[in-house]
Design goal:
mainly alpha
């Protein structure tokens, strides 16, 4: 029993030694800081979007983002999977909307800077991207004619 106690005490000591703060070099700290969203350049004006700077359009977008009525069965909204406090994703290995998908929820933090959308890059604009989850039978299972 005494031997087991010594072994456990040694193991606890080894674990505690490894729990110190990591020491990053100045170069590593600079690299880490460069990855922050705040270090991204200002967005260029989108000449294809005449509503980009209209506050009422942004307010409508926010309302729709949280509206469960945008799903076919009224059970999910965009915010169901894209949680604000999780960098607009949900930490699940596979997304769960109206059904279960085979991929993780895409984080939306910084998405305005991306040239391609979805894990496989199948959309090249936010306009094209926005309809896909709304109509996907596993995500929101909606219908664009019903939205109109």
């Amino acid at each position: 029993m005494k031997r087991l106690f010594r072994f456990l005490a040694l193991m606890v000591a080894v674990v505690l030694v490894g729990c110190g703060k990591p020491d990053f070099s100045d170069a590593e700290k600079k690299t880490i800081a460069s990855l922050a969203l705040s270090s991204l350049p200002a967005l260029k004006a989108d000449t294809t979007n005449r509503f980009a700077d209209v506050p009422a359009a942004a307010a409508l977008g926010s309302t729709l983002f949280f509206d469960q009525g945008m799903s076919g069965d009224g059970s999910v909204s965009c915010s169901t999977c894209h949680k604000i406090d999780r960098q607009f994703q949900d930490d699940l290995p596979q997304a769960v909307g109206v059904g279960h998908t085979n991929r993780r929820t895409m984080p939306l933090a910084g998405v305005a800077h991306d040239p391609w959308f979805f894990w496989d890059g199948r959309r090249d604009s936010l306009w094209a991207q926005a309809l896909t989850p709304l109509e996907n039978p596993l995500e929101q299972a909606g219908n664009r004619a019903a939205y109109a």
